[in-house]
Amino acid sequence: MPHADSALVPDSIASKTEFWEHVHSQIQALLEPEQRNWVTNLSNAASLVYNSLLAFPSHFGEGERAVNWCGFYLDAPLFPQRRISPESTTQSKPTTSRLLLGPFNGRPACQYINTTPGKARGVCADAFLQRRTVLVEDVEKYPGHIACDGATRSEIVCPLVLDDGNIVGVLDLDCLAVGAFNAEDKAGLEKIAELLVKSCDW
Ligand code: SME
């Protein structure tokens, strides 16, 4: 099967729970045991979730109710750093913690999110710092919500937590409809997050 076809959704899928089980199995099929690079695996996962949602309009609805963004924000130290010359090793450590934009599908989004306790703001920072899925029924009523796209109306952000308890980032989904996400989406995404953290080297 061509890789692109893994984002097709069979007509037999009738509920959100079935949909997420299907997407989970499609991600599992795409992952290869010897390929544990997080850029590679999260890139395909973002594309698969986003395009599967678009291929299953009964999940949210079409057009003005569709998913409009799916992607990852990752803890900044995971990204390749600029080489520090031996002379500058006395440089002090950065005092700001942040998530950087990772693999995603959708329109351009903010490049980083401040997660420094006391200065952090937004749904992604809250999910990251509290290590819990945050489900936002109406983004306009969420204090501190960061509007990367003014058309977004609801959002769900799921943390990526390793077995040892360390957190590496979050998975973020946005929708053009208010109240698009529910407990079935939360359960489905948390299972996908679990699969992805286990399938990559961090
Ligand atoms: N709305 C998010 C920012 C990321 S975008 O939705 C892609 C937030 O409040 O953290």
Topology as a string of helices (H) and strands (E) = HHEEEHEEEH
CATH class: Alpha Beta
CATH superfamily: GAF domain
% residues in beta strands = 15-25%
- Per the CATH scheme, the topology name is Beta-Lactamase
| Bound ligands, named by name, code or SMILES | methionine sulfoxide
Structure characterization notes:
Residues 118-195 form the GAF domain. GO terms for molecular function: L-methionine-(R)-S-oxide reductase activity. With 202 residues, the protein is an alpha+beta fold. It has a single domain, classed as GAF domain (Beta-Lactamase), CATH 3.30.450. The protein has four helices and six strands; from the N terminus they run ααβββαβββα. A six-stranded antiparallel beta sheet has the order 3-2-1-6-5-4, with helices on both faces. A hairpin with a 5-residue loop joins strand 2 (98-106) and strand 3. Helix 1 runs antiparallel to helix 2 and helix 1 (16-30) packs parallel to helix 4. It is globular. It binds methionine sulfoxide. Methionine sulfoxide binds at residues 69, 109-110, 113, 122-124, 145-146, 148, 155, 172, 174.
